[in-house]
Prior knowledge:
By secondary structure, the chain is of the alpha+beta class. 34% of the residues lie in helices and 34% in strands.
Amino acid sequence: MGLTRNRVPVAEAIEWATLPRCGAVVKFTGTVRDNNDDLAGHHTGIVAIDYEAFDRHVEPRLRQIALAARDRWPVLGRVALFHRIGPVPVTEASVLVVVSAPHRSEAFTAARFCIDVLKESVPVWKREHSGDGTSGWVATGNQIDNVTASARRWCLARNPEPAA
Length: 164
């Protein structure tokens, strides 16, 4: 779990998460693509993204996300969360979530929870680089929030509380 300047260890994380009691291992890999529909418009010709992070906050927040997933789905086997920093070329992984569970339902839902909360609560920023030599920071429109608030919003969006 954590930050890496090297390739994201996809195969190793899947192997680590595979347990005899878990019949489901779900992997989400976010890869760098050659285009972006951000708030400012459509950008094409992207060749790489540089990721920067507020390092000392990333790993504790990744651990909090894994713990929040375990609290919500106690049957989970293992949870692995990685984010790459530094330059990442198109088609390479920048983020990885691997979740194992006895059944696919919990594994898929917990993996979705982990990536959604990670995107809202882990302080990582990206600068796109285009083939023409231009670059620019990506404005996501998301304000980095704490894990607890982000997890609560995620849960409420899927299970709204009844009206009083």
